[in-house]
């Protein structure tokens, strides 16, 4: 679109300054300048379209007028890859307020899209459906009376494919499993349960299951290792809420497989879905047992509710049966009823286990007379 004007030198100077400014803005730091070129006239039709070098980044400097009609249009053509994304930016220097716009055409010269008009900047983006596309830069207002010109810079470039955004998951926070996890097998019991304690808000949400979908794909059980004083009778009771139907089993301390014989087990106690078991700690053993709790309710797991409380009780020493026949033995004095509940904890071997997070009261009343020594044992979770 070359025209002869007496002020052509001034226009050329302005164009040079515009190109220098835009190139500088496009090349921050030590990034090389984008390769630039100027439009080649005539480029007023599809057949005369200037080629845009793709995919190498670059820009074209051009100029349009608002009259005559042939000088209001500039055509450009570029090679494209089908399925790739492209963008065209038009930066405009229009002191006289002449608005420009872009029109996009496919390789069959069919119109695809039109940008907004502006005297400063506008853009277009598209996904290539042909191996070539055309862009036409045109003046919006055509006049035969007042001559206006506008310089522009046309940038066309291939856009990077967006990074796939992972599908959102309903990750639950805080963690929905109970604080005693992981305790999912006889080989991995929790040592945090003690006779005389009640563990509250236990649940059957699997350890490290962060969604309901994950939780319902895994069956969770709870296993605790407890100490019941040798010779005493102990009880474990599970009180449940909706969605929980417990089965409680007591195993020997050396049990490693749930198929091994149980000492005692119970499904439903009374008219509830909770469970209760009672067993006698062997007088000759070390007093350790494993309590296995599973849920027979197969309804979907939920992150709230569906809990149970586990209460562990020492029923004190089991009385020795009176032998028959024969005369009844003379009863001895027995344990002093004023002694505390942990007697007889007279040495390390008979130390009484103190439950975590509880406050209890003891005394120095000798259980059988003489001097009273009290020994206690506490469990400390590894890492704490």
Task: Supply the key terms.
2 domains, 20 strands, Jelly Rolls, mainly beta, 33% strand, single chain, 384 residues, 5-stranded mixed β-sheet, 2 helices
List the helices and strands and how they pair.
Layout: H1 8-25, E1 35-38, E2 50-52, E3 58-65, E4 73-79, E5 85-93, E6 100-106, E7 111-114, E8 121-127, E9 132-139, E10 149-158, E11 198-203, H2 212-215, E12 221-227, E13 232-240, E14 246-252, E15 264-266, E16 275-280, E17 288-295, E18 307-317, E19 352-353, E20 376-377
Parallel strand pairs: 1-3, 2-4, 19-20
Antiparallel strand pairs: 3-10, 4-9, 5-8, 5-10, 6-7, 6-9, 11-18, 12-17, 13-16, 13-18, 14-15, 14-17
Kindly report the spatial arrangement of strands forming the biggest sheet. Answer: 1-3-10-5-8
Principal-axes shape call:
rod-shaped
Strand content: 25-35%
Rg value: 43 Å
Number of helices: 2
Order of helices and strands: HEEEEEEEEEEEHEEEEEEEEE
Structural class: mainly beta
Low-confidence stretches: 1-34
Instruction: Report the CATH topology name of the largest domain.
Output: Jelly Rolls
By CATH, the architecture of the largest domain is named Sandwich
Molecular structure report:
Helices cover 6% and strands 33% of the residues. With 384 residues, it is mainly beta. The chain has two domains: 8-158, Sandwich (Jelly Rolls); 198-320, Jelly Rolls. The strands form five sheets. A five-stranded mixed beta sheet has the order 1-3-10-5-8, with helices on one face. A five-stranded mixed beta sheet has the order 2-4-9-6-7, with no helix packed on it. A four-stranded antiparallel beta sheet has the order 11-18-13-16, with no helix packed on it. The longest helix has 18 residues, at 8-25.
